[in-house]
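Weekly puzzle thread! Below is a chain. First person to post its structure in token form gets bragging rights.
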Amino acid sequence: RRRRRKRRRPRRRLPLLRALQVKRHPGEWVFVTQAAAPDLSSAILAFRESEGWTAIVPRTSTDSAAACPVWTWLEMAVVSDLAAVGFLAQLAAALAAANVPCNVVAGFHHDHMFVPVAAAGGARGVGTEGGAGGTVKP
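Winning reply:
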């Protein structure tokens, strides 16, 4: 008796992906860690972990590229819900397919991805045809 294979349904794009525009913020960014609370005047994010504080701050000329990876900040310029299911998973899958690492931050209004500066060109394609959807803005 021959088993019938179930047909795979084509992957549907989420409505958020159809409306997606990716905005690249100017500058270069680094993740720093320290035991004490960071100076928030230049940080765009600070998060307290059990090992200490992590902050995302602008790269300065004193940051050593070898000791500190440098990141590009991409904003998913579509208003997303904190409870949206699958949105970031599809974006991360598109980046993984392009072999681009990313660090994701979910904001109240938008999601943000930090990708290596050297890979920013490929990562920006996540919002174009053949990527996850939408368009890219500088």
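Puzzle host: Confirmed. Bonus trivia for everyone else. DSSP finds three helices and eight strands in the chain.
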